[in-house]
Amino acid sequence: MSVIIDFFIGFFILVGSLFCLIATIGVIRLPDVYTRNHAASKAATLGVMSILLGTFLYFYALEGHFNSRLILGIVFLFMTSPISGHLINRAAYNSGVKLWDKSVRDDLKEYNKKVLEKSSVD
Amino acid sequence: MAFQILLNVVLAFLWMFIKVSYDPISFIKGYIFGLLVIFVFRRYSHSRFYLFRLWSFIKLIFIFIKELILSNIAIVKIVLKPKLDMRPAIFAMDTVLTKDWQITLLSSLITLTPGTLVIDVSEDNKTLFIHAMNIGEIEDEINSIKNSFEKAILEVSS
């Protein structure tokens, strides 16, 4: 029984740190703010989540200690990380950071142009 | 929904008073019997039986976890590929959701699943502008969001 638990704890923590590592590589390798933000705000989310899960399992199974703060940590991570990612990207777009030159399309540009024209007519 | 839960609690207390026992176990028993009563009389209520809504919420969470893991693997593949040949794009998606909290939930879920990130919402709350890391066909991309998240959110709120 404890061997299975050990396996799961090791699995979660290893996978978590692997995802964090890949997120870091992604931040360095990817070409522009938007794609970097994908790697930073999301691969890291799953990574931190699995590390917290592994820690929770460790304390619960081996020490018999139910730590609800680790679960709360996961919940708050899910609440805050999409908002921060969204805000960084929105701020970057509105202050005019260019997309990568191989990007295929940009619907928001046309929309913004339309809104601008409308407000100048009014 | 709030009325049904209140009614359920009242029924649980009723059960406790009838049994003249005030421990948590009899409250839980009363709650379960009350649930049964509300389930039987669900046709006379204006809103849906609230356990159905809870069930669709749990389904939404499972859909989300599945998407989270699948798309994380996709991101890992892109990052570790020796050649950077993804096709990032910003595309517009029309949504049928109308309430503020529904749109907030939808855009949070879209942002949390890797590969897609909401940049902006149009003034009239009808269009989401999504930055996608590696876009295939725009139609497929939109349909996959519509069929998974939007449908599940509609089910929760109906």
Structure overview:
The complex is a heterodimer of chains A (122) and B (158). Chain A is mainly α and 122 residues long. Chain A is built from four helices and no strands. The radius of gyration of chain A is 20 Å and the shape is elongated. Chain A starts with a helix and ends with a helix. By secondary structure, chain B is mostly helical. Chain B folds into two domains: 1-44, no CATH class; 58-157, no CATH class. In chain B, 63% of the residues lie in helices and 11% in strands. In chain B, β2 and β3 form a beta hairpin. In chain B, α1 crosses α2 (24-40), α3 runs antiparallel to α5 (138-157) and α4 (100-112) crosses α5 (138-157). The longest helix of chain B has 31 residues, at 50-80. Chain B is elongated and about 75 Å long. Classes of the chains: A mainly alpha (122), B mainly alpha (158). Chain B: Belongs to the CPA3 antiporters (TC 2.A.63) subunit E family. Chain B: It is found in: Cell membrane. Chain B: Keywords: Antiport, Cell membrane, Membrane, Transmembrane, Transmembrane helix, Transport.
Task: Put the structure in a nutshell.
The complex is a heterodimer of chains A (122) and B (158). Chain A has 122 residues and is mostly helical.
Task: Give me some keywords for this one.
heterodimer; A: 122 residues; 4 helices; elongated; B: 158 residues; mainly alpha; 2 domains; 5 helices; 3 strands; 63% helix; membrane (chain A); transport (chain A)
How many DSSP-defined strands of chain A?
Answer: 0
Count of discrete domains of chain B: 2
**What's the overall geometry of chain A?**
elongated
Helix fraction of chain B, binned, reads 55-70%
Structural class of chain B: mainly alpha
Number of helices of chain B: 5
Subcellular location (chain B): Cell membrane
GO cellular component, one term (chain B): plasma membrane
GO molecular function (chain B): antiporter activity; monoatomic cation transmembrane transporter activity
Family (chain B): Belongs to the CPA3 antiporters (TC 2.A.63) subunit E family.
